[in-house]
Amino acid sequence: MTPPDGTTTNSNVDAMTQTPVVLDGKALAGRMEEDLKERVGTLLARTGRVPVLATILVGTDPASEIYVKMKRNACKRVGMDSRKIALPEEATTGELLDEIGRLNDDSGVCGILLQHPVPAHIDERSCFDRIDLAKDVDGVTCLGFGRMVMNEPAWGSATPAGIITLLDHYGIDVTGKRAVVVGRSPILGKPIAMMLLNKHATVTICHSRTAGLPEIVSTADIVVGALGKPEYIKSDWIRDGAVVIDAGYHKGGIGDIELDGIRERCGAYTPVPGGVGPMTIVTLISQTVASAERLLSE
Ligand code: NAP
After folding, report:
1. Domain ranges (residues) in the chain
2. Which tens digits make up the pLDDT trace of 173-190?
3. 248 lines ligand 1 (CB under 6 A)
4. Is 20 helix (H, G, I), strand (E, B) or coil?
5. How far apart are CA 108 and CA 110, in angstroms?
6. Which of these, 62, 81, 58, 60, lies nearest to 71 by C-alpha position?
7. Which of 157, 181, 188 to mutate to test the pocket of ligand 1 (most atoms within 8 A of CB)?
8. pTM of the model
């Protein structure tokens, strides 16, 4: 299968004798942004308004500051607005809940991003769950997660939804394939496992107390590294022809999976950087535009 933009695709995970496919998230995100720019322009012409993403950052964690900045820059690139809310490190759960409540009630805001993680004294789960389902464009609420699992409409958690978009774009059919997800976090491991299950993969979820991880990974047609430890998953655990998805990003431009030694013999892989990361951001933006198309038409 050849996608409309002419990039190489891999339509069959079994047919892995050809050159491994680079799942180029950066290139795909760039093309998606062009489309989003047009949609934002159309919305502006129709309603006189552009989508607004509210970003909430609590504290001064440098990595979180960079992630929020990257997301705000992406808004700018597609012609959207973003509204920056920065709360001090000592903000309380109550103050954050109140802020989210105000954004829920603000008809000018179409999406709310609460940057994870918040300081440890804050009840992050309650704060995520205060986000109105319609504005949960980062897919962090329990309600949104449950609806997604049940195949009901909901915005998907941004990183896993971005991974699925990438797989779909490259024509990788996961039906009947054995997927092994390493990590079970609420924003990544659990939702990607459920999304793959909904697409008819046979899914195994591994975590810090899983016994025999190398053996389990070695059975996978599709491996998702989502554990947050640099190159923890070794290339020699992974079988020839597997699809390798690495959500991790660490200093030195490495992910959670050791890519050296697998690049040449896998079926497809996400580069680090330039694979999953750009798909996360474009998914957040895309879901905000879709939310605006709905909310601003009401
Ligand atoms: P997290 O909340 O820290 O969760 C890590 C998960 O990995 C947990 O479920 C943990 O198991 C599991 N784990 C830890 N050590 C393990 C081990 N030795 N063997 C097997 N499982 C192990 O992390 P996260 O937020 O999901 O992020 C995971 C990775 O993805 C990180 O590298 C993060 O930077 C990256 N990430 C990237 C993006 C992006 O846009 N590219 C977005 C989000 C996250 P337990 O549940 O048992 O503790």
Report:
1. 13-23+170-277, 50-135
2. 999 999 999 999 999 999
3. yes
4. coil
5. 6
6. 81
7. 188
8. 0.94
